[in-house]
Amino acid sequence: MTTVFINGINNQLGSRVARGLQASASVRVLGRAACDPTIMHTHGDLLINDREARSMAGWLHDEQVQVFVHLDMMGEDVPAASREAELQHNVLGTMQILGICAAAGVQRVVLRSSSLVYGAYASNPSFILENQQPLPRLRRSSLLRDYSEIDTFAAQFAASHPTMEVTVLSLCGHCGRHRPLALERLTCNSRPRQ
Predict the structure, then answer these.
(1) Does the structure show a pLDDT above 60 at 192?
(2) First to last CA, the chain
(3) Which of 17, 32, 184, 188 is the most exposed place for a label (fewest CB within 10 A)?
């Protein structure tokens, strides 16, 4: 059985991914809501408040989490109280999560990014390749700047941790309630690619 932890299980994307994964008997879904700092097990076997957890890395290790899906981005579904809070939560929080996952022995980490970083705008519908520099207009959007920094850091982290699979999904807006998500298929496969 694959154990998947979804950070941001209460946002639109996180809840949809959790519902999709729960349909599989071979996937155990754990999650943490962005607004409510409670770690939830969808099979009802345990409920832990993360304020009481001494070591998130130890907890992830004890629960044998194989896939960590980080979908909790301030400014996307939840408005940021300030730019400082947004930066702390998005960029520094993601850096902490990657370190925690490495310490816990998590095999695969999936991070949320945005296709907007690479040029999918109404005025510019063509995409820029990921090995090119992000668009200059990113300087106007703090959230896109955060995504760009996270993408860069994730690539550096993946290069220095070759035993972990780090995947950055540059998601675009999705529509329709019954379309399967590629994210669901990615997290269901318990074996990292070699």
Answers:
(1) no
(2) 20
(3) 188
